[in-house]
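Example for tutorial group B:
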């Protein structure tokens, strides 16, 4: 095999030095490759892995703008809600209302405070266009410059009826982006008029505070706090958005007693936070976690100590100073590298012993009373006992393979890489892992069997097996039904929407199920086959049925009896991947699961 090639991605020191535009001369951010001595040498890590994949979605979904807007003539439509009248559009069969405030702008003295009720209005509020995304940086696009605004707490609604007697089920989307990026209005990565028209439900999305603005824990931020806590402000925003839905959704034809929350990646992590938060109890009635994480265990005290690196960068010594800083300065001061390493290195690689991912979401004792797994085990008061769907894809990490030459690995390369990482844990872990993940296992693309074996192994460690464990605990604790699914569908072609990530996704990658539900796979693949479209219909069918009925159809058994495997059809399997997951569980690998 040819020599390995390293790629300096967003994890390189040079790039993070200039995450936010400054007066210094901008450095060339072109991805470079460097020859190395080893056939499979370690490249600088693909930091912000999940975030970067979401950024790619933005770039390849430009064409989706026309798809979302449709060609139907539109008229204006007014609805009276609790804070005043709002004016949206009625296009074809769908009404859409965008940019309705659900909280006051969290600026000035309200920065790093619980969300405050919005100021109401006397005139009709224009709800025609999306409002700003929350403050963020996107390292692989926009030259890493600051984007958005702190004035960002807005909600969007799509519905086929504004009759309060319609009582349609409600689906509230929580966007992903590693709690750092994106918004409730990303083209193609969120509800659409097409979804509203073909799904009997009211669809809602919203923004919530992100990165340091939404999740910075510092002891001095407790000063004047009504909760005596810091951090998790973004989760508080999510609770506020759900309260807005409960109060107002009937005016948009929705049933406030039939609300489903669902989120992907860190949006799925947010679903877990809402499930265990006493603040959110009673605000939703079903939940769907799509590739999120239930593994956020850092205490507020520990996070406050870790985040002193942020305080050092700001030059501030008190909360008043912090609240006067510019948006850019705060984004620039985030500890992207060096523990707690908010850049999230190694998410798509095998772990090495002792190298953990730093916390963004934390256990603050107020929004999140305890780690989700402890909530279930100890049956702590205040969690939501509602029907729950827990989903992953089989090759989650395929969206951002850590090596440019992964598809060219030899059997020797594969074994060497696994050994370098897993030997750090001692024992027979390396030997056992290679036995359970043979490259000889059947795959539809024989020249990619090694790539598939590696990606499946990492995905099991980071997401599939930890998710099985928490799903089993949830099923044992909740009286409501719990369902588990794994997407095994392989799309018709490589999903390489742009040149920002040079490695196309070829298997059941992170976010495949979400694009299927939203009906935007064609934008990822360029074109779709009959099988791709069948998979999309299947995802939409089951999610919409769950939102309407609070349970899955009879062909989808409850967990832990069986796991639903989703492709062009649904099949169900007992003890799915039990041998593989037992290996990782018995070797203490749960702590290396995805977090945030």
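The residue assignment follows.
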């Amino acid at each position: 095999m040819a020599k390995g090639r390293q790629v300096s991605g967003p994890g390189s020191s040079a790039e993070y030095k200039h995450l936010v535009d400054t007066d210094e001369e901008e450095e060339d951010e072109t991805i470079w490759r460097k020859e190395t001595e080893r056939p499979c040498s370690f490249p600088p890590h693909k930091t912000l892995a999940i975030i970067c994949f979401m950024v790619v979605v933005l770039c390849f979904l430009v064409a989706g703008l026309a798809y979302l807007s449709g060609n139907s003539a539109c008229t204006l439509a007014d609805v009276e809600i609790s804070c005043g009248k709002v004016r949206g559009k009625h296009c074809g069969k769908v009404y859409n209302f965008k940019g309705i405030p659900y909280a006051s702008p969290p600026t000035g003295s309200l920065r790093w405070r619980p969300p405050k009720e919005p100021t109401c209005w006397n005139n009709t509020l224009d709800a025609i266009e999306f409002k700003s995304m929350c403050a963020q940086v996107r390292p692989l696009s926009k030259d890493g410059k600051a984007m958005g605004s702190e004035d960002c707490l807005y909600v969007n609604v799509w519905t086929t009826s504004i009759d309060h007697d319609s009582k349609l089920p409600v689906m509230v989307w929580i966007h992903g982006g590693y709690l750092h990026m994106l918004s409730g209005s990303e083209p193609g990565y969120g509800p659409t008029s097409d979804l509203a028209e073909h799904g009997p439900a009211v669809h809602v999305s919203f923004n919530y505070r992100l990165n340091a603005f939404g999740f910075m824990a510092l002891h001095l931020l407790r000063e004047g706090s009504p909760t005596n806590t810091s951090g998790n402000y973004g989760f508080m925003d999510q609770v506020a958005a759900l309260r807005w839905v409960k109060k107002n959704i009937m005016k948009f034809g929705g049933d406030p007693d039939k609300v489903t929350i669902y989120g992907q990646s860190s949006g799925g992590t947010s679903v877990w936070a809402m499930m265990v938060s006493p603040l959110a109890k009673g605000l939703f009635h079903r939940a769907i976690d799509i590739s999120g994480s239930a593994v956020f265990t850092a205490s507020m005290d520990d996070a406050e100590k870790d985040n002193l690196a942020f305080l050092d960068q700001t030059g501030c010594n008190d909360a008043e100073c912090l609240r006067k800083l510019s948006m850019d300065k705060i984004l620039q001061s985030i500890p992207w590298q060096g523990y707690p390493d908010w850049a999230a290195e190694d998410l798509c690689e095998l772990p090495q012993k002792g190298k953990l991912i730093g916390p963004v979401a934390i256990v603050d004792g107020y929004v999140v009373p305890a780690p989700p797994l402890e909530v279930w085990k100890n049956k702590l008061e205040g969690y939501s006992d509602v029907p729950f769907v827990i989903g992953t894809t089989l090759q989650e990490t395929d969206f951002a393979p850590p090596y440019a030459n992964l598809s060219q690995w030899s059997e020797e390369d594969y074994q060497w890489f696994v050994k370098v990482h897993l030997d750090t844990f001692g024992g027979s872990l390396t030997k056992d892992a290679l036995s359970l993940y043979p490259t000889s296992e059947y795959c539809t693309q024989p020249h990619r069997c090694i790539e598939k074996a590696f990606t499946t192994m990492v995905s099991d460690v980071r997401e599939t097996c930890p998710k099985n464990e928490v799903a089993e605990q949830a099923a044992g604790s909740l009286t409501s039904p719990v369902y588990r699914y794994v997407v095994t569908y392989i799309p018709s072609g490589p999903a390489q929407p742009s040149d920002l990530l040079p490695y196309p996704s070829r298997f059941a990658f992170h976010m495949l199920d979400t694009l299927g539900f939203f009906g935007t796979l064609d934008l990822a693949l360029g074109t779709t086959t009959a099988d791709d479209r069948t998979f999309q219909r299947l995802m939409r069918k089951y999610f919409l049925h769950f939102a309407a009925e609070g349970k899955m159809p009879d062909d989808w058994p409850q967990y832990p009896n069986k796991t639903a495997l989703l492709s062009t059809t649904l099949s169900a399997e007992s003890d799915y991947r039990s041998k593989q997951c037992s290996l990782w569980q018995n070797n203490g690998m749960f702590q290396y699961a995805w977090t945030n």
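The mean pLDDT is 87. Compare this with the pattern of hydrophobic and polar residues in the output above.
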